[in-house]
Amino acid sequence: MSNYLTKPLELTAKWAEQYTHLSNRTMAAAIDNIKAAQISFNGTLLYFNEFLIPFWIAFNSFNSVESQKILKTSPLETLHDYYNLLLFNLQVAQKGFTSSHNAMRHYHARQLDRTSQALMNMLLMRNGKDVADLAAHEANLLDQVVNKYPAAIREIEPEYGFHFDDGGYELTAETDRFWLYRVLPRPEAKAAGKIEYKKKPILILPPYVLGANILSFLPREGKSYVHAFADQGVPTYIRIIKDIACTPAVQTMSGEDDALDTQTFCKLLKQKHKRPVTLNGFCQGGFVAMLNMLSGKLDDLVDALITCVAPMDGTRSQSLVEYLQHLPARFRDLGYAVKKLESGNGVVDGLVMSWVYKLKSMEREAPLFTFYRDLMMFDRSNGHSVKISKTAAAINNWLLYDRSDLPRSITQMSFDSYTQPVAPDGTLPVKLFGRKLNFKRLTQKKIKVLICYADKDDLVNKEAAIAPLDYIDAEVTVFPKGHGAIATSWSQPTSECALHTCFGSKPNGGCHRGPVRFQLDLE
Element (H or E) spanning 23, and its range? Predict the structure, then answer.
């Protein structure tokens, strides 16, 4: 009789316990879902804000330029141009919408499957994650993407890039527009403490758009393009542009000014080291280095040229050219990116220029797509906190914070390269000092040339980088990965394609020489 009375009481107690457990877990899930929703909303605003800031700058410039153009153009032509611009914008928006929709669908379909499994686990009291666990995971995931990831990107600043006051560099010379720094070997390098002035010096020209810091990526981690040379005992120098915001000479700088300042530095280095200089340009710096060489101002001062992921004929960059071709001719005007400084000088806004590249690759750069891409990247942790690598943080610091304004004349040279092809005889669409520039001059002056490109570069593709091969003989080195990999992944001495080594194999035999190996072999 006692068992008959006790059993219902035990069942009632068990049901009460289960009900309490379900209530507590449901409440925990609700609290974390509210937290996740708040963070998700903030994250979406953050990603959209980052994307739209350059839009408003470009919109103001657009209105300023169009207020003049519209007075000089017939209403019918204006209507036609604006209609084509609308179609162009719709095409760009469609790419962004499609990629964002696919990313959202993929992410939420996976979340729906997880939620159904978690719900069954909770209701049936099965082992495994329940809805509270899933909600906590989602809140933690969003917190990592929206809060911790940006914080890690900001906090990498002391270790990333050039810090010319840390004792690792020597100011060697300066002009009105540039500083010239010598890069000293890192303390742990074999060349540390050894200054060999009779070795052949190298002068490195960084890109204008995204600055020099990518070339001194993470020196403490052994990932630094400039230190890859210096650590091997090469007298290594880098040209650093002065702050354009407060330097009128930079604001009004022309291609001729760039060439003359490079000439000044090369004269100094040749005199100091008693050897001709190797000129090395990275990305846009490689294009500028080529123009300087072809101008004749570096004759007898420079006897070797290295270019890395440099667009030598921009019209061969199919994706960007296709993008520009869809843009109505009226709007292919650099003036839409120009802003006025307090000095009255007009400069090209770096944010707008980088935004143009985002529009070109809208399917990968749309705000919602990048938000869900980052969510899926961090979601591989199975609920555990992800340790954000210094490399990932530094790359994003470069992409987010290293965009600088540009002198209009310098940008115009690159713009001409992307809108006018190199002539069949090798003449470039850019002139310096009133003279034509032709690739064949390198052969006439017996300049040794190494062209490096990345096989998965979606910014400067192979055809644009190796364009000089149609007119001159040059050595070519192919690196794996994308645009920045030469300065990041492969600058580490222990990497598979270390810059001071030979690696891989060429179709016609032999191996690929890294730029440091090329420089050392010039000895």
Answer: helix 2-72
Asked whether residue 202 is assigned to any structural domain, the reply reads: yes
> Facing residues of 452 across strands?
308, 477
In terms of residue numbers, what domain contains 82? 17-159+350-401
Q: Exposure pattern of 233-263 as b/e (b: 16+ CB <10 Å)?
A: bbbbbbbbbbebeebeebbbbebbbbbbbbb
Among the listed residues 425, 488, 83, the one whose alpha carbon sits nearest the alpha carbon of residue 282: 488
Rounded CA-CA distance 244/404 in Å is 8
Tell me the pLDDT tens digit for each residue of 17-57. 666 767 777 888 888 889 989 998 998 999 888 888 888 88
85, 41: one domain: yes
Residue 10 within a domain: no
Q: Which residue has the tokens 């006897």?
A: 303
The two three-digit tokens of residue 10, written as one number: 């035990």
Per-residue pLDDT averaged across 446-455, rounded?
96
Q: Where does residue 212 rank: exposed (0-12), middle (13-18), buried (19+ CB within 10 A)?
A: buried
Q: What is the CATH number of the domain that holds 497?
A: 3.40.50.1820
What confidence category does residue 382 fall into, taking pLDDT thresholds of 50, 70 and 90? Answer: low
Q: CA 255 to CA 410: how far, in whole Å?
A: 6
Beta-strand pair 338-340/236-241: unpaired
Which run of H or E residues covers position 503? Answer: strand 502-503
355 and 286 share a domain? no
Interatomic CA distance for residues 517 and 376, integer angstroms: 39
Instruction: Return the closest-CA partner of residue 20 out of 175, 155, 177, 125.
Output: 125
Q: Identify whether residues 437 and 395 lie together within a single domain.
A: no
Residue length of the chain: 523
Task: Out of 385, 401, 417, pick the residue that ends a domain.
Answer: 401
* Torsion-angle region of 300 (φ positive above 0: left; ψ -120 to 50: alpha; else: beta): left
Whether residue 92 is contained in a domain is answered as yes
pTM of the model: 0.88
Instruction: Judge whether 343 lies within some domain.
Output: no
DSSP 383-423: TSPP---HHHHHHHHHHHH----EEHHHHHHHHHHHHSPPP
Choosing from 401, 421, 442, the residue where a domain stops is: 401
Both tokens of 32, joined, read 């974390």
Domain match, 241 and 265 both: yes
Q: What is the rounded CA–CA span in Å between residue 11 and residue 505?
A: 74
Q: To 10 degrees, the CA torsion angle through 469, 470, 471, 474?
A: 10
3-state secondary structure of 484: coil
